[in-house]
Amino acid sequence: MIKTNDAAFFEGARWKACALAAVLLLSGAALADSRADAKRHFRDGMALIAAGQVERGIAELKQAYAIKPHPDVLYDIAKAYVDLGNIPEALNYFRQYVATDPEDKENVLNVMARLQAAIGGAAIAHAAAAPPAPDAAPQNVDVQKLLAQLQALINQQQGQPAPQPAPVAKAGRADQKPAIPAAAVKPAHPEDEMFEAETISAKTRATAREISQQLSAGHSGSDEEMFDEQVVSASARSSSEIRAPASLTVISADEIRMSGALTIPELLRRVPGVDVAEMDPSDTNVSIRGFNRRISNKVLVLVDGRSVYQDFIGGTFWPLIDVAMQDISRVEVVRGPGSAVYGANAFSGIINIITKSGEEADGARVFLQAGEHNTVQAVASAGGKTGKLSYRTTMAYDRADKWTKDVADGRIDMVPQFAQPDRSREVQRADMAATYDMGKTQVTAGGGFDNLATEIVPLGALRTFASTGQSGFARFEVDSGSTKLKAFWNAGRLTTGPEYWPNDIRSLTSSVRSDVVDLSAQTGFEFKGAGTHNLDIGAGYRFKSVKWGYLATRPDNDPYQEHLFNVFLQEHWQMSKKVSLTLSYRLDRDPLLYQQNVTPGGIVQSPRGTLLFEPVQDQVFRFTVGSAFRAPTYLESYIDLMATIPNQPAMGVRFQGSKDLRPEQMLQAELGYRGRAGNFQPEVVVYAERVQNLITDGALRLPANPAEAVDPKTGQYVIGYTGFQNQPGSYFGLGTEIGGKWSPADGVDLGLNYSYEKMLACRVDSSGGCTDDTTLANQVSATLGNTAQHKLNLTAQWRTRANFDLAVDAHWVSGVTWYERSFDVTQQGGVFFTPYAIPAYTMINGRVGYRWIQDKLETGVSFYNLLGDAHREHPFGNAIGRRVLFTAAGSF
């Protein structure tokens, strides 16, 4: 029951919220700055032009270009001016289009020459002097050269000799114009006369109509898909969002800024099918389509295509990712198996974090955010383009304390082993990237370095581990059309161990030294035959080196090293405008699988096929069948650790790795629909999956003889031996993801999605059959019961002309029962599972911001878990409370 004063508080808060909304509603229409807004104006403009309302259509196209500049919009504006008969303005916009160096540049120059010939020499001067498109990005156009090209084409058409070029203006004078006869110069049209056509003859109009028809037939653009992100994570080739060969969600830079999110996992809560289990502010486990666990290990996380998966333990440590939130251009989330493209560990999905280029960064920017729980984020970045070189560099600081204490103050039996035990994460970060444009080839190099303190909750009976140390990376890429070469190096130097530990028990603190080098090469070509074929082939090499105190000691204390190889093939067959087929196939060779003869030759095969059917434009149906695998980690294969029982220091459990583990396997079939109906973009996905060879904790084996009863290193009594094993039988899942995005007005974006997943286990024990029962305290219940069956997400953001930004994310997750494993020699198998009920919870996050001084300065307040629902997302995790942060950002 709500108390009287509580009810009054909530009633007052409700009225205040309504009053704020009313003020914002009265503040004016929304400010357009999203892809959805640009699509809307483009679609309306093309419809108006088709209906004969050319002037109004041109105005809509110019608005679309102002929001999201794209060369094809310039082409469409120019063509509309040809339809209108305003050839000088058509030449003006064709000139801007040609300056972007499009593929059809020569054809457009010929068209410009014909238009020029139709109205005479005066229009060249008009085209050169006419103002650029509203809010158009500045173009570095050599007008002198362009005019000479046009005149040469005109003279060639009229049978006249080419004129001598006019004297070139000296460098350093930005205000100098090409030499044009004074009589040929006409003033630019005033804004209120921009749609009025020049008075031209009937013959000229006929020529314009003829040219317009040729333009309609000869240009491949003129579609609102030009405003879609070209996603790169779903296959070997980039594609538009709507036609990607996989279930895909893109989180844009605008959504990231609006959300006020501190970390990438906070953003991922809004993605359908994604499970987020926050242990504490630095340790969040992200799963896709089930199989939640501590140290989630079935999702491959990439930064610009560079894997940040931690091979020594399996999974992703989010604070080690070398990127600040403000440097992210977009996040692409692929739901479903991706091993056919990325190999091992792209088991249930891929998260690719794409960072901003120097051109996107465009200037200097500072960002500061601070608030409750000693939370601070500070970022300073600079980027831009100088000639052919673009660059971006960033320095950042990130700090957050725990939501709740792991160990109560005043305890003398448990003492901290690391400084600042209430700290969850603290990271000092610096990184840089530069790209040199050589025309068709771009060369990119970059690197970064982190100094960090973070924590993680590992598997088993152990609780929070702290880690301190350094991590870094270096990358080098060459991109030349369909040919790509990539190389990267990831390095980690960490000290890790239990954050609290009794003084009189041998410490489990250890060091980790990890190095990963990855090389890949890809090329492709196109050919015709019953349609269009794009064939891509590639190969890769991955070197892994790990030295870790928890692994069995090697001769001379050498690190564990592995050399892995892969080859892949992808065929994209565009059978017709309505039907396409994408087939991907990859072979990975793992040396441990080869040495132990787990798979023939140590080879793992990963095929995938996708059929796309588009019966009507922008209504795409997709059928995908694909497989994936996750290879055993160093921890699972080589661990050799005596773990002391805290309340019985003379005894312990010996953990030993299993070298003959089979890789986890998934086969998934998926039927999806994605469309576009005006301002609404619906998506429906239904999938079924089978998972085999899950790697889980093994049973406890009692010492077989007196020699095994005492650990030779520590002298402690060994109560049992355990490790990892492949779980027998198979797991089957059936799920659906339904949602959509709606942009009812400029600056307003709404999203809603719902996810459902049902899992069952088949033939996992001697009884046979299948079950979805999670009431029994066993490994089956631990696998099935850790994932919520129902998830509902609502997102809303609004950018107003009054400079206010509003964003709200609401998440509801159904309850689960986590089963955690412990040892007990009196139990059969020496292991028992304890159930912990995690009730359903609702979380509301968001941000209110205000933009000052023409958007150069921005201030705001962001909130996390606004309702203060102090829930836990894992029984051993912190109770997540409310957090309010104040932000300020400036760009120069």
Description:
The protein is an alpha+beta fold and 892 residues long. It folds into three domains: 1-28; 35-162 and 182-227, no CATH class; 230-891, Maltoporin, Chain A (Beta Barrel), CATH 2.40.170.20. A hairpin with a 4-residue loop joins strand 39 (841-852) and strand 40 (857-864). The longest helix is centred in the first third of the chain and has 22 residues, at 4-25. It starts with a helix and ends with a strand. Mean pLDDT is 84; it is low at 1-33, 121-141 and 157-200.
Model regions low in confidence, pLDDT < 50 over at least 5 residues: 1-33, 121-141, 157-200
Number of helices: 16
Give Rg in angstroms: 31 Å
- Whole-number average pLDDT? 84
CATH architecture of the largest domain: Beta Barrel
CATH topology label of the largest domain = Maltoporin, Chain A
Main pleated sheet: 22 strands, antiparallel, barrel
Number of domains: 3
**Which class of the largest domain in CATH terms?**
Mainly Beta
How helix-rich are the residues, as a percent range? 10-25%
Based on the structure, what is the oligomeric state of the protein chains? single chain
- Please give the alpha-carbon distance between the first and last residues: 53 Å
CATH superfamily of the largest domain: TonB-dependent receptor, beta-barrel domain
Number of strands: 41
